[in-house]
Amino acid sequence: MLSPDQAVRRLLDSLPRPARLLVAVSGGSDSLGLLTLLAELCSDPAAQGIFLFAATIDHGLRPDSAAEAAAVGSFCNDSGIPHLVRSWAGAKPLSGVSAAAREARYELLTAVADELDATLILTGHTLDDQRETVVMRATRNDGADNPGLSGMAQLVLLGRRRWLARPFLSTQRADIRAALVERGIAWIDDPSNINPASERVRVRQALAAEALSVSVEIEEAGRRRQRLAEGAADLVRRHSTMAQGVLVRLDREVLDAEPEHLRHGLSALAAVLGGRDHGLRQESLGRVSDFLAQRLPGRMTAGRVIFDLRRDGLYLQRENRGLPQIAVPAETEAIWDGRYRIRNVGRDSIQVRAMPVDDREAERLFPHVPPSIGRRAMSVMPDLRVFGDAASQVVLHAAPVIAPYERFLPVFEFDLAREIAVLLACDELPRPPIHVCDRKS
User: Fold this and answer.
1) For 212-230, what is each residue's pLDDT tens digit?
2) pLDDT tens, residue by residue, 373-420
3) Of 78, 14, 83, 6, whose CA–CA distance to 47 is shortest?
4) Which residue has the higher pLDDT, 196 or 344?
5) Could you report the per-residue pLDDT of 111-151, keeping only the tens digit for each?
6) From edge to edge, which strands make up the β-sheet containing 83-87?
C-alpha cells in the first residue's frame, strides 16, 4: 500500500515535462485529496513544468449537485487552480442510471481534456474502490479466467485518444481523509454512497468490517491478464492478415499456440469483427476451442462471427444476418453495425446498409481467398454507394471501430489493441504518457 503522499509523488516522478494534468473533482474526499496533494507538491520548484486543471461533472441527479460543483469551484479558485464545470444534459434513463452517468462523465472529461490538450486525466479511485470492484465482478464469475478479477486499471485510454490515470488505487480512503483532516479541509459526502439500493454500497458495507489489504489474488489476476494480452498480441502480429476490414485470416500454425493466448486473441478479434464491446462469453469461447481442437475443416458461429477452418488457415468474419440499415442525416455521423463510424458531410440524409453481393466484385475485393468466403465477406461490408439525384451532394467517410476498445482500453490490453488497430489500418493508438512498472490494474 502507498500513503497518499507517496502515491502522488510516484505519479509526478513518472511524468514527462511539460505535463498538463486534468483532475476530476466531485468534492468527495478521494478526488479532493488528490487535488490538494497535487497542488502542494506542484508548488515545489522540482515540479516545474507541471500544470494543474480541475473539472467537475454535474450529473444533475440531485438538487444539490450544482451547488456542490460551485463549492469545488470556490476551493479551486482559492487554490489558484483553473476549474471547469460540465453538465450532463438531456433526459436521464429510467434504469441503469449509474452506468449511464459513468459513460457521460468520461465523455465529458475527455472533451475537457481535448479543450485543454491535457496530458493525463486523473481520478481519485482508491484501494477501497478496487476491492469493491473485484468483489462485484467475482459474484458474476469467480473463475480464475475472469479478466474482471484484475480490477480497475491504473491507466485507461478513453475514446482512443486521452489517457486516464488512477494514482490512488493502492491507497486507502481512510488515509486520504486523515490527510484532509490534518489540513482542515472538509469534503462533500454524496448520499448515494450510503444508499443500499446500489450494489457497490452493499458490497462496501459488507467489506467494512474486514481488514483492508492489497489482495494477492488481484495482483496475480492483473499479471495473468497482461500475459494473456501480450501472448495474444504476438499471435495476431505473427499469424494474421486482414482483408477490407471485415475478413481475418489466421495461419493454421495458431492452432499449435498456447491455448489461453489463442482463446484470448480469438475473443478480441471476434468482438472487433462482430461489432461488440465485449469478447466472447466463456461458453461460446469453449465451443470455439472444442471445434478448433478437432482440426477438421468446417465452420461454426459464435458472437455473430463465423469461424471457418480451411486447409490454408482459419477465417473469421461477421455473419451476414441481422445487418442493420441506418439513416445518417446531413453533417452528422453514426455507428453502423458496431463496426464502422459513418460520417456524412453532404447536404442530404443517406441510408447505409450491407453491400449486395456481386461475384466479380467479390473476387476483385478478396482475390486470395476461397470464393465462398469472399462472397460472405463482401455481404457484411457497408454499402457506401449513393444513387439518384442526391449522389453529387453526398460525401461519405467510413472509419473502422475497434468495438471492445473504442471507449475504454485498459493499459494491460494496449499491445493487443494496437496490433488489431494495425490490422484495421486505424489511426495509431496514443501510447501511455507515463510508465507503470507492473502495468496491472
Assistant:
1) 455 667 777 778 889 999 9
2) 999 999 999 998 765 455 445 567 899 999 999 999 999 999 999 999
3) 14
4) 344
5) 999 999 999 999 999 998 888 888 766 665 555 455 556 68
6) 83-87, 50-58, 19-24, 120-122, 162-165, 155-158, 408-410
Q: Domain map of the chain by residue range?
A: 4-125+166-214, 239-320+403-424, 326-400
**Residue 405 DSSP symbol:** G
> Could you give the CA distance from residue 227 to residue 371 in angstroms, rounded to a whole number?
37
Cα separation, 210 vs 356, whole angstroms: 61
Alpha-carbon distance of 98 to 189, in angstroms, equals 17
Strand ranges for 337-432 from DSSP E: 340-344, 350-354, 382-383, 396-400, 408-410
Measured in whole angstroms, the distance separating CA 200 from the mean position of its chain's CA atoms is: 21
Cell of 120: 493525463
Left (φ > 0), alpha (ψ -120 to 50) or beta: where does 434 sit?
beta
**418 residue type, one letter:** R
List the end-to-end C-alpha distance of the chain, in Å, as a whole number: 14
Q: Which three cell numbers stand for residue 236?
A: 495476431
Q: Which residue has the higher pLDDT, 223 or 178?
A: 178
Q: Per the omega criterion (within 30 degrees of 0), is the bond before 18 cis?
A: yes
- What whole-number distance in Å separates Cα of residue 344 and Cα of residue 330? 6
d(CA 417, CA 223) in angstroms, rounded, equals 17
Q: What is the pLDDT of residues 156-168, one digit of tens each?
A: 999 999 999 999 9
Answer whether CATH 1.10.10.10 is correct for domain 4-125+166-214: no
